[in-house]
Amino acid sequence: MNINEIIVVAAAATLTLLLGWFFFGPRKSYRADLADGVQVVTVTVKGGYTPELIEVGPGVPVRLVFDRQESGDCSSRVVIPAFNVNQALPAFTTTAVEFLPGEIGEFGFACGMNMLHGRIRVSGRAPEAGSLSAAQVTGGDRSETEFAGDEANDAEAAERAAEIADLGRRVVWGALLSGPVVLTVMAVEVFNAG
Q1: What is the pLDDT of residues 87-110, one digit of tens each?
Q2: Alpha-carbon torsion, ordered 49, 51, 52, 55, to 10 deg
Q3: Strand partners, 35
Q4: 162 has pLDDT over 50
Q5: Least crowded by CB within 10 Å, which of 1, 32, 55, 158?
């Protein structure tokens, strides 16, 4: 193995580690603020969800205010299966989604195409009181009847979401595992051609 091959292998290994850290490394969470007895978090929708990990307390209503700053089809809906939420997000507006977390745990949310993902962590800690501006809390309230959904549709949606999540994991792992090999082979060919 000559020096060029060692450099290429080291670069491929470093790139693989960086990609693994980027996709699977720890995420910074954002704790909901308490305003008028409701836990409120503003989530920016622009190529993803920011913040993508939200912490709330159980037994206190949650209002996620989605500030959608794009017009692509992928982010035009948000789906939170654990709380029976399937809400349209019009482009360049804010939309409030409300639900009541009852149990402690982590619950995922995604766009309608299941390409953008976020998580809601319901923990035993009480939310902190804070003041929010009216612009952060805009959007309509949802009644309890809007949260109710047909059980068959919910089961289908959950099964579809599980299949899509599994496919996404397979694609990511395939790219992570084959990428360094492809880059190494291409680099060896480039260096040997010269």
Answers
A1: 999 999 999 999 999 889 999 999
A2: -140
A3: 38
A4: yes
A5: 1
Q: How many CB atoms lie within 10 A of CB 128?
A: 11
83 secondary structure, DSSP code: G
Q: Which residues contact 112 (CB under 8 A, 6 or more apart)?
A: 74, 76, 77, 78, 79, 86
**How far is it, in rounded angstroms, from Cα 64 to Cα 54?**
9
The 10s digit of each residue's pLDDT in 120-160 is 999 876 555 543 333 333 334 434 333 334 444 555 566 56
Taking the C-alpha atoms of residue 122 and residue 117, their distance in angstroms, rounded to an integer, is: 17
> Could you tell me which CATH class the domain 32-148 is placed in?
mainly beta
Six-digit token pair at 57?
Answer: 């307390």
Residues 6+ apart with CB under 8 A from 115: 74
Q: Which of 138, 118, 146, 105 is nearest to 35 (CA)?
A: 138
Domain locations along the chain: 1-26+150-194, 32-148
